[in-house]
Design goal:
single chain, alpha+beta, six-stranded antiparallel sheet, 25 helices
């Protein structure tokens, strides 16, 4: 993987080569194997190179040929199939870099070539013949790509740091995005804090010329065809083949490979399959990485009978002869995360991964396999399924599901609650769903925004993501989750962070071929033999130990302790007047008051809600002093910190 930067002046004005080099150099941490660029008439293209696959050693970008110029941040996972379609002789395939395959595919199929690419990619292709630019991002958003248009000037980059560093390129904060973030920080996926700047959406192709731009999709979850077999065994076998293919294709690398391991189905399946496949090749998985803390006096093993994800992690490590590296993040790490520039990093709250990246980089791991995205694909649960059964009159199966979910017939109140929230409420119209939503159980946040800001952007209060509610249709829920933005936003943030450590993240469970299969499965396979995700378990079979599931209790205790420590650090900073400079986006009196309310020990649900709002306010405060304040004030901001 790598990074790309480009600029096109559709009026033919020259691109300043020195300014372009400054922008490209801002992403030098992506290019461990060198940087290269070309400046042509009215356009410039740059590439930061990081080799992780055998074919990447033959990359030479920007790739210029007969009026076409390509820069690509890509790892293609269907190279052999693509070479077959392009009639490429076998003797040339090993030395054929992914960028050339993309260029050849464009020559053969034009803009439709993107539909034939499987893998993680973002690329831009300039066609001088009609002075048009084609930008594309993979189906799930594993690789980021940001676009900016100001008049006749169009720019793109893997990382917004290139735009920030670009001399003569003006970036202004979009305060409507700030308002939306302060109102609902957990629902601002792939949001842009800069005017005129936007992330290219996953699964999209953007064509730009002087007349304007056209956005099209090359993949959509709604387009997945139904998958219907006569025997259940055929589903299991096909599932197994696709899982092996998805993991195996991401092991075709020249660098050390590590894997996330949480003790859940997704990461455990990926880790075990990767370990087995690498062992067959005479290689070894470098190790696995978890956010969970090691067993200690502070985080001891639970009492007998209580589940602990670390027991599952240890069992898998013994089974596969792997070493696990446990989470080491602290409240100081969380505070450092809050101080980062969220306008370029994104708003994803997964600071624990920064600790994983540090440890992995120190150990020489260069490729990290993650089970992220599995909940929306391979291990999708029963979201929307109880309502589906209700609307189709499947009373017997609905009652059985309700009984299992509640823990038995002796718990009638839990059964009634499940049936109401998961069966009836999803069938209600929006207004009634809003009133009775099961998502409202967590309680409202207590935000710290300034009233004047929200008054200027009232639409921010009604902003909702595609998957804001439940529908009585599991296929529809899967599709909405694919469009929700949380998958691509985390992938983008991790791409930015991991570049600082020479790491590349790969996500086998979001493989496009696997998604097309899981999206097309019959709903009846979502819950079988009293269990959700049974098909996935059977597909991986005996490779997985018993007791897998979402039981990361130790990690949640650690996360709560980190929050408490971070709040105390914030309170200490406030006492030193670190947050005394005003921010027009916040209610400063309430902000100052909240800062010093750190709990002595333990955190109630109400305090947790207050802390979440405090974190978003701290991030907004730093954003204000980075972009909206004067140069003298920014010096004061740096001094106080």
């Amino acid at each position: 993987m790598s990074a790309i930067v480009g600029s096109v002046h559709f009026d033919g004005a020259p691109v300043d080569p020195q300014a372009f080099l400054v922008a490209l150099s801002a992403l030098d941490h992506y290019g461990n194997h060198g940087r290269s660029s070309t400046v042509l008439e009215g356009c410039a293209f740059g590439h930061q190179r990081l080799d992780i696959t055998p074919a990447a050693a033959f990359e030479s970008q920007p790739l210029e040929e007969d009026g076409l110029v390509l820069v690509a941040d890509a790892v293609l996972d269907n190279r052999e199939a693509l070479c077959d379609q392009l009639d490429i002789e076998r003797r040339w395939r090993g030395s054929m870099p992914d960028s050339r395959l993309i260029l050849l595919a464009y020559r053969r199929w034009g803009g439709d070539c993107v539909r034939r690419l499987v893998g993680d990619f973002a690329f831009a292709l300039w066609d001088a013949r009609d002075r048009s630019l084609l930008c594309a991002r993979d189906h799930i958003g594993a690789r980021p790509l940001y676009c900016l248009r100001q008049g006749d000037r169009f720019c793109f980059a893997t990382d917004l740091r290139a735009f920030r560093a670009w001399p003569g390129l003006s970036l202004a904060i979009d305060e409507s995005s700030v308002a939306a973030f302060l109102l609902s920080p957990g629902d601002c996926h792939d949001i842009s804090f800069f005017r005129d700047v936007y992330p290219l959406a996953p699964g999209c192709v953007l064509r730009v010329d002087r007349q304007g731009q056209t956005l099209d999709t090359h993949w959509s979850p709604e387009e997945a065809a139904q998958v219907r077999y006569a025997r259940r065994e055929d589903y299991v076998e096909h599932f197994r083949e696709l899982l092996m293919q998805a993991v195996g294709d991401r092991l075709d690398v020249t660098a050390g490979v590590g894997s996330h391991l949480s003790g859940g189905l997704d990461s455990s399946g990926v880790t075990v399959l990767a370990s087995r496949l690498m062992r067959e090749q005479g290689r070894r998985l470098d190790g696995c990485y978890t956010w969970s803390p090691p067993v200690s006096s502070r985080y001891p093993r639970p009492d007998a009978g209580r589940r602990d994800e670390r027991e599952v992690i240890a069992r898998i490590c013994r089974q596969e002869a792997l070493t696990c590296h446990y989470g080491t993040t602290t409240g100081a790490d969380f505070l450092a995360y809050l101080e980062r520039d969220m306008a370029v990093d994104g708003t994803v709250d997964v600071f624990e991964e920064l600790g994983v990246m540090r440890v992995a980089a120190e150990r020489g791991t260069r490729v990290m396999l993650s089970g992220w995205g599995g909940d929306e694909s391979a291990t999708f649960g029963i979201r929307g399924y109880p309502g589906y059964l209700l609307t189709r009159g499947r009373w017997g199966k609905l009652l059985t599901l309700t009984r299992e979910a509640a823990g038995g017939l002796k718990r009638p109140r839990k059964m009634a609650r499940f049936l109401w929230q998961q069966g009836v409420v999803p069938c209600l119209p929006d207004g009634l769903f809003d009133r009775y939503s099961p998502y409202s159980d967590s309680g409202p946040l207590s935000p710290l925004y300034g009233q004047a800001l929200i008054a200027r952007f009232p639409e921010a209060a009604t902003r909702r993501g595609p998957a804001w509610r439940l529908y009585p249709d599991p296929r529809r829920m899967q599709c909405l989750l694919m469009h929700h933005g949380h998958l691509g936003s985390r992938m983008s943030t991790w791409a930015h962070w991991s570049a600082e450590h020479g790491l590349v993240y790969r996500y086998p469970l979001t493989d496009r071929r696997l998604l097309d299969f899981t999206l097309g499965l019959p709903p009846e396979l979502l819950w079988e033999q009293g269990q959700p995700r049974r098909l996935y378990r059977d597909a991986i079979g005996h490779h997985l130990p018993p007791g897998l599931g979402k039981n990361d209790n130790a990690n949640e205790r650690k996360r709560m302790a980190i929050r408490e420590e971070c709040w105390r650090l914030l309170a200490s900073a406030a006492e030193r007047q670190a947050f005394q400079l005003p921010c027009e986006w916040l209610d400063m009196a309430a902000f100052q008051d909240r800062l010093v309310q750190a709990p002595d020990e333990g955190m109630s649900d109400e305090q947790l809600s207050g802390f979440i709002s405090l974190c978003s306010a701290v991030q907004a405060w730093h954003l204000w002093w980075r972009y909206r304040s004067s140069a003298d004030d920014q010096v004061s901001h740096a001094f106080l910190l």
